């Protein structure tokens, strides 16, 4: 079986097996890891290799290991799917093929799903949230399955206690873009990736509200002025203004979030 490519700094450890005979890449020492099962491993790291997530990847703050599902396929063409049992359109990822891929990905990972979640990117999954990203970032790592075709055999989902996650109420041709979005949202919460930990505490969803409007230089642009309170130097007044703005924009744009915010603490309701 052809070894999969890992991205990031590798830890060095003693082994009796020559490097060229090893079937698995060594893990990063103590770093959060994302293993991604996909038919398109060349799509990774993609945008994750750029900007802050890319720099953190190079520094070894996290590791990315794409796993080519095709290598576990059957027959001359390495087929990984088959027709739906009971009839219907499209193709379904096979249980035996995905099971082999998941067993391969499980090498060196804990069995506890709290420490190592397995996520299937699917339009029928639970909506991705900031709280979910925070939970994933506190695990040791995770395995992501990029969906294709009509979905994945339900027996695999049940057997491996797989969590289904969706980016929203729309359908994409595959889960690779969704996987990169989920990884980005998670990796940026790992200490040291952003540099300024306070920035993750003040942004949208961190306290159940959307973020307040942001402004920078120049103070006047095409007749539009920066709100005077932001130039006042009065940090108490600035915090109060930002809180009010966050509440207003959340109430107007996301009544679902506003309802949850006011339900959790009735004192927030205005």
Question: Could you explain the architecture of this structure?
Answer:
There is one protein chain. The protein is α/β, with parallel strands linked by helices. It has 2 domains: 19-187, SPOUT methyltransferase, trefoil knot domain (Alpha/beta knot, 3-Layer(aba) Sandwich); 203-268, tRNA(m1g37)methyltransferase, domain 2 (Trp Operon Repressor, Chain A, Orthogonal Bundle). 30% of the residues lie in helices and 16% in strands. It contains 8 helices and 9 strands. The strands form 3 sheets. Strands 2-1-6-5-7 form a 5-stranded parallel β-sheet, sandwiched between helices. Strand 5 (118-127), helix 3 and strand 6 (141-146) form a beta-alpha-beta unit. The chain is elongated and about 70 Å long.
Topology:
Layout: E1 32-38, H1 51-59, E2 62-68, E3 81-82, E4 92-93, H2 95-105, E5 118-127, H3 130-137, E6 141-146, H4 154-159, E7 163-166, H5 176-187, H6 198-202, E8 220-221, E9 224-225, H7 235-253, H8 255-264
Parallel strand pairs: 1-2, 1-6, 5-6, 5-7
Antiparallel strand pairs: 3-4, 8-9
């Amino acid at each position: 079986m052809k070894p999969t490519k890992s991205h990031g700094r590798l830890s060095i450890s003693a082994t009796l097996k020559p490097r060229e005979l090893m079937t698995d890449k060594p893990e990063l020492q103590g770093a959060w890891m994302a293993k991604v099962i996909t038919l398109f491993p060349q799509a990774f790291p993609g945008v994750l290799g750029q900007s802050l997530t890319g720099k953190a990847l190079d520094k070894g703050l996290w590791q990315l290991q794409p796993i080519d599902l095709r290598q576990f396929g059957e027959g001359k063409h390495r087929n990984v799917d088959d027709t739906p049992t009971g009839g219907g359109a499209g193709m379904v990822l096979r249980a035996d093929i995905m099971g082999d891929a998941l067993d391969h990905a499980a090498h060196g990972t804990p069995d506890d799903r709290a420490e190592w979640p397995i996520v299937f990117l699917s339009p029928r999954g639970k909506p991705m949230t900031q709280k979910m990203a925070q939970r994933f970032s506190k695990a040791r790592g995770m395995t992501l399955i990029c969906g294709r075709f009509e979905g994945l055999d339900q027996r695999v989902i049940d057997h491996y206690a797989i969590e289904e996650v969706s980016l929203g109420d729309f359908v994409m041709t595959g889960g690779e873009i969704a996987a990169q979005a989920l990884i980005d949202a998670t990796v940026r919460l790992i200490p040291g990736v952003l540099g300024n930990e306070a920035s993750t505490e003040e942004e949208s969803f961190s306290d159940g509200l959307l973020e307040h409007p942001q402004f920078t230089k120049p103070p006047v642009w095409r007749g539009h002025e920066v709100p005077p309170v932001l130039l006042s130097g009065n940090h108490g007044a600035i915090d109060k203004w930002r809180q009010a703005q966050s509440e207003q924009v959340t109430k107007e744009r996301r009544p679902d979030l506003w309802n949850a915010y006011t339900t959790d603490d009735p004192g927030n309701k205005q």
